[in-house]
Amino acid sequence: MERVTHIPPSITSIGDLVAAMSEVGVLGCGRIGRAASIVRRMFDDPDCLTFLSLSGPMVPGGLRRIICHLVRERLVDVVVTSGANIVHDLIEAYGGAHYHVPPMTGDGALRTAGLGRIADIVVNNHDFEVLEENIYRFLDSLSSEQRTSMSPSEFLHALGTSLSDDSSILRQASLNDIPVFSPGLMDSMLGFHLYTFSTQQRFALDFVKDLRFLGTLVAEAKKTGAIILGGGLTKHFTMGSTILKGGLDLAVQMTLDRPEAGSLSGAPLQEGVSWQKVQSGADFETVIGDATALFPLIVLASMPR
Predict the structure, then answer these.
(1) How far from each other are the two terminal CA atoms of the chain, in whole angstroms?
(2) Is the confidence at residue 237, as pLDDT, over 80?
(3) What does the buried/exposed string (b/e) look like for 73-98 if buried means 16 or more CB atoms within 10 Å of the residue's CB?
(4) What are phi and psi of 157, to 5 degrees?
(5) How is the beta sheet containing 248-255 ordered, strand by strand?
(6) Domain boundaries, the chain
(7) Of 147, 251, 281, 287, which shows the fewest CB atoms inside 10 Å?
(8) How distant, in Å, are the alpha carbons of 41, 223, 224, 277 from that of 283?
(9) What is the average pLDDT across 212-233?
(10) The CA-based dihedral angle spanning residues 95, 60, 127, 134, taken in that order and rounded to the nearest 10 degrees
């Protein structure tokens, strides 16, 4: 039997802390250590097509700069995200911000003050008005052909090139040719603006075109890996796309969801083996916890120095 090693109190770096967690080897420490090892392999392997799947409030929750860095340095090859994370990236790209909920403030008072709440985060409604103005301005700049021929990822690439904020995930993805897929794009404020624009001018996105594009990326990859934050549609889209290759070779999931209800969000990655979304011999780890806290810890310990 292998003995549990205890974490020394003299640690002064994130890398050393996660290495010590790996030495502990059990419970949450062990899972974090194993997850960091898998993520490091994804970052170090040029033959691995690495997905970053984003569900939940990852951008308003403080991860924008880290995600942007991964995209800028091409440590991930594909981003799959909810429409909401795109919206919140755009909010900041257009000069807005996310704020702490003022102490002892109720939701009625927040509504009166023009603030929308996400857990203990608030966003000013004015920032959404600025978003709307900029999105309509961008849509007006598109040609009639572009408005009816683009896939969501092509639309997001074009939108990213129109931004000037170098801290924007979408801008860096466009500059570095990292495709951003958003299968649930219409279920967001950006999607709502696309709808209202389409009531005045002809506009449509080709979602099937994105599947053809993604299918080609997966088919040409020697191996696939995924860092999955949260669950839901982005997790399923990421894992499902790799069925063409028999599933993921490397995978890490960070989630607070539970498996008992049978939803995909709480399903352990092991379940994906039966669906050919994870290879039988794959190296994977599910870490139970808040991804906004776990992701920086695991990624910062895994990035090349």
Answers:
(1) 34
(2) yes
(3) eebbbbbbbbbbbbbbbbbbbbebeb
(4) -65, -45
(5) 180-181, 78-81, 48-54, 223-229, 248-255, 278-288
(6) 47-95+126-291
(7) 281
(8) 10, 12, 11, 13
(9) 94
(10) 70
* Paired tokens of 260: 């008992």
pLDDT at 305 > cutoff 80: no
User: What's the gap between Cα 284 and its chain centre?
Assistant: 18
For 83-150, the three-class secondary structure string (H helix, E strand, C coil) is HHHHHHHHHHHCCCCCEECCCCCCHHHHHHCCEEEECCEEEEHHHHHHHHHHHHHHHHHCCCCHHHHC
The residues assigned a catalytic role are 277
Say which residue the tokens 């939701």 belong to.
107
| Cβ proximity of 157 and 79 under 8 Å | no
Distance CA 83, CA 1 (A): 47
For 47-95+126-291, which CATH class?
alpha beta
Q: Which two tokens stand for residue 8?
A: 């020394």
Instruction: Report how far residue 91's alpha carbon sits from residue 118's, in angstroms, rounded to the nearest whole number.
Output: 14
Q: Which residue has the tokens 């997790």?
A: 235
Number of H helices, E strands in the chain: 14, 9
At 83-137, the pLDDT tens digits run 999 999 999 999 999 999 887 789 999 999 999 999 899 999 999 999 999 999 9
Indicate the helix (H) or strand (E) that contains 214: helix 207-220
Q: Spell out the residues 6+ positions from residue 100 whose beta carbon is closer than 8 angstroms to its own.
A: 120, 121, 122
Q: ∠ CA(139), CA(143), CA(146), 5° rounding? A: 85
Local structure of 54: helix, strand or coil: strand
CA-nearest of 105, 59, 66 to 85 is 59
